[in-house]
Amino acid sequence: MDWSVGEYELTAAQLLPAAKILVDLAAPKPGEVVVDVGCGTGNAALLAAVTGAKVTGVDPARRLLEVARARAKDEGLDVTFVEGTGEAIPLDDGVANVVVSSFGVMFSPDVPAAVAELDRITATGGRILVTSFPPEGPMMKVMGAAIEELSRVLPPPPASNDRAEKPFGWHDEADVRTAFEPRGFEVTVTRHQLPMRATSVQAHLERLEKHPSAITGLQAVPDAKRTEVAGRIRRRMTEVLETVNEDPAAFLITSPFTIATIRRR
Ligand SMILES: C[S@@+](CC[C@H](N)C(=O)[O-])C[C@H]1O[C@@H](n2cnc3c(N)ncnc32)[C@H](O)[C@@H]1O
């Protein structure tokens, strides 16, 4: 999926409080090298740079890297942004005292490769902190509804019928331990809450419709059916958003998220 399409910036603004919790927990010291994997528009990278750390952000989406560079310039911060993925990080072995990934590496399609890369770039005594959304919670419920509507008209992803094992979960301490303990890391997973507000259900829905995954999903629908499917998704998402809304006068949902803290022993 191309994360450069649409207006991911709107979602990034909502995820900023989670990036703040992540960077506070990572607690980079001035002069430490921090790498933000899947940095997007730079939420965690910029917060880390404010602490005096030397920061590099890595992301596959070129447009988001441009936005991140512009934000760094506006804030007078010296941050390097480079193109790459969690499975192929274009940095040297052992460079990072701290690796953070704010809902970034959770999108890696090749978890063993991403685990190997995070291990490879982490220095002796270094730490890796990864945020992720567990499958439950209002935000995932809304996304699940949209995916269900899309799956009525799109063919199933290749090999999905053969997938007997449950997918790796960065929110799941047992999964993260299995991946990192044999590599000499200690793992803890903590749970946090992310409130997301809007002036109304409609305003939140409009923001979601500009998310890269919404645009990419609809682009995959045959032209003749796109308008009808978009309408069906909108109605279904509105229904679910109204059910999960915690603020009848406006819009509020509180979504759980996790931070896996992975320290080299
Ligand atoms: C939900 S956004 C999070 C962006 C940013 N960290 C934030 O907190 O706003 C997901 C990001 O992961 C990036 N991404 C997608 N595939 C990736 C991969 N294989 N490895 C690393 N990042 C990836 C996307 O380009 C996007 O910027």
From TrEMBL:
Residues 35-129 form the Methyltransferase type domain. Keywords: Methyltransferase, Transferase. Gene3D superfamilies: Vaccinia Virus protein VP39. Its EC number is 2.1.1.-. SUPFAM superfamilies: S-adenosyl-L-methionine-dependent methyltransferases. One of its GO terms (molecular function) is methyltransferase activity. GO terms for biological process: methylation. The keyword Methyltransferase applies. The keyword Acetylation does not apply. It comes from the Bacteria. This is Class I SAM-dependent methyltransferase.
